Structure prediction request, 227 residues.
Amino acid sequence: MILLGRNLFVKWLYILSARELGIGEMTKFEFLQLAQRYPVAAAIKSSEDMQIALTSNALLLFILKGDAFDLAQSVAQAHKDGRGVVVHVDLVSGVGKDRAGIQYLRQIGVDAIITSRSQLVSAGKAEGLVTIQRLLLAEDAALDTGVRTIARAAPDIVEVLPGIIFPDVAAILQSMLPGPFIAGGFIRTAADVTRVRAAGCILSSSSTYSLWQQTSFLRSMSPGRDI
Prediction:
């Protein structure tokens, strides 16, 4: 856990104020701070999901489906509450799968991108966005291939799917990649979240509404206290 001194706390309040005004770009440090304050990201696939997420305890919103025309409003709403918005570039329709598409996301205030494509990781880094690359472990052969691909792309964060198996592969992944790691997929209970965190994940991504509201996951932001 990180101990917040007075100066760091004042800096964090400034960051939140900037995000609420829709200015500034989220850094990897700020992303990790949000993950530490609440360890479940809301995995959003519909407008209904978004409305529920905006009233939840989740501080990171992962938009996994939707339309580019709705993104700007969602980003603005999320930033009013100091939340971070992450867009899965490969899955959201209407967003170009190229540098121009990434530039559009940056211009409307998106904080981070998720992708399986190394070229989009490079584009995201060039635009100053936090980059998350997915590692799909559907079979044993996918591990070595996926790790090599991600090592070359060097994203800020790696999302492991299905996330529920992260504890079983954590030691191998941590020996091959610097991380940090997110667990995505089949995370359905508070016990699942606790288990993957204990194995080294900084965050779980889940579409289970109850995990967006767990008061036991909350981290205090008071000066001089752990978050």
User: Anything to note?
Assistant: The beta strands are 40-44, 60-63, 84-88, 112-115, 130-136, 157-161, 181-184, 203-206.
